[in-house]
Design the sequence.
């Protein structure tokens, strides 16, 4: 599963966080090959006991954080808050930007869906008239 | 003398507002909207437009009492058993009002009838001649169902109900009896005029006193407490809240009055920061919210730190 030279670097992270293993592999493959993100890096968040990716979306200049999650593994507000705090210390946001994380939610059949989580009360991009 | 606070009439743990100026105060001064839930008597076969009473969310009641912006009145205890003389005077004044209405209606109708028969004299006469040609037997049978409807004049859409329909004696002819005249029933939304209504001993100004009396028990669980705290935090920052059932959430959050704006958020309250959430639920919330041009708010109340926490969730539109 991790034979691909690009995904091999995920192996230690997958072993450290087995519940995230499939999510890490599939998200890495999808972001690097399908979504064609640039400068994709793996970051371990020790204080949250999980792994996140950092990369720049295709046709964009600002990097973004991605948190791969397995569909059926529970999380909670405090776990998500811990991820946000950890990311803020490593990659601080400059006002007026708010800390943003892409949740990459992976099913057992390997499909990946992406959702955007933002800190606080942030109006939707498409505001209803 | 202290200004009168809006009265929230509580019955079976549900708060109703019956006074229209109270409803206005709550909406305009305290941006608490509630939902109108009563039928409008004159357009009863629809529920797009509803009337009194206004029903409040339990979180709205908690907030109003906590900030001393309203009082709870226990409806059951505020309506005392009426005395015999109270009952008699209520019935007799009602009967007198009905009788006056009936007499006025009857006089009005008889006057209209005589005017109509004068105006359409020639038409009535020619129709009676036609009937005469058919024979007397037919005339007797027809007479029972005969309702004279004048033809429309230029520009008229309707002539209104024919005079005989207002006087319900089944035959349309013969002398109209006063007992058969229809009358309108007026429904009083507030009990303030009733002599046996006395809220003084049934008014509660604090949530604790209402709870002690068994009148208002909300909030009772951790989830309900979290809902109240999250609601209050959003209220303090100037948002308007509505029920979230239509879009799969606990509340809808509006940036301003719901009559002027669509909501920007659906909100789900989690009882505590450690409450488990499945990413599958995040998918459901996020996709539904984005599909209806909103964002989904996840809100929780941290009891230890005594503060609320929010995240905004949307579909990323790629992948």
Sequence:
């Amino acid at each position: 599963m991790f034979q691909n030279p690009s995904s091999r670097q995920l192996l230690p992270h997958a072993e450290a966080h087995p519940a995230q293993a499939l999510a890490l592999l599939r998200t890495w493959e999808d972001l690097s090959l399908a979504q064609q993100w640039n400068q994709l890096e793996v970051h371990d968040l020790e204080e949250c006991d999980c792994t996140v990716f950092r990369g720049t979306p295709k046709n964009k200049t600002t990097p973004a954080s991605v948190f791969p999650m397995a569909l059926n593994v529970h999380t909670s507000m405090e776990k998500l808050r811990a991820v946000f705090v950890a990311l803020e210390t490593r990659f601080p946001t400059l006002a007026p930007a708010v800390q943003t994380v892409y949740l990459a939610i992976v099913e057992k059949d390997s499909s990946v869906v992406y959702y955007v989580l933002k800190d606080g009360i942030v109006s939707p991009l498409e505001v209803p008239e | 003398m202290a200004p009168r606070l809006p009265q929230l009439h509580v019955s079976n743990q549900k708060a109703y507002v019956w006074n229209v100026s109270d409803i206005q105060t709550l909406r305009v001064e305290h941006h608490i909207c509630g939902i109108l839930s009563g039928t409008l008597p004159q357009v009863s076969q629809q529920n797009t437009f509803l009337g009194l009473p206004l029903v409040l969310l339990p979180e709205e009641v908690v907030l109003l009492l906590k900030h001393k912006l309203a009082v709870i009145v226990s409806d059951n205890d505020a309506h005392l058993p009426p005395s015999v003389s109270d009952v008699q005077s209520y019935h007799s004044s009602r009967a007198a009002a009905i009788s006056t209405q009936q007499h006025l209606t009857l006089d009005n109708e008889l006057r209209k009838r005589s005017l109509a028969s004068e105006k359409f004299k020639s038409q009535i006469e020619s129709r009676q001649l036609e009937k005469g040609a058919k024979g007397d037997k037919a005339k007797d049978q027809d007479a029972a169902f005969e309702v004279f409807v004048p033809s429309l004049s230029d520009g008229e859409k309707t002539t209104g109900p024919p005079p005989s329909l207002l006087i319900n004696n089944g035959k349309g002819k013969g002398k109209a009896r006063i007992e058969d005249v229809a009358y309108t029933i007026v429904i009083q939304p507030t009990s303030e005029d009733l002599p046996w209504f006395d809220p003084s001993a049934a008014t509660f100004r604090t949530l604790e006193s209402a709870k002690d009396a068994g009148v208002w028990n909300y909030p009772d669980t951790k989830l309900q407490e979290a809902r109240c705290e999250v609601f209050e935090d959003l209220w303090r920052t100037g948002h308007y809240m509505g029920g979230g059932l239509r879009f799969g959430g606990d509340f809808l959050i509006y940036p301003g009055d719901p009559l002027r704006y669509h909501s920007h958020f659906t909100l789900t309250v989690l009882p505590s920061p450690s409450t488990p959430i499945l990413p599958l639920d995040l998918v459901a919330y996020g996709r539904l919210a984005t599909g209806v041009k909103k964002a989904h708010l996840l809100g929780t109340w941290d009891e230890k730190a005594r503060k609320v926490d929010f995240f905004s969730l949307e579909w990323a539109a790629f992948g």
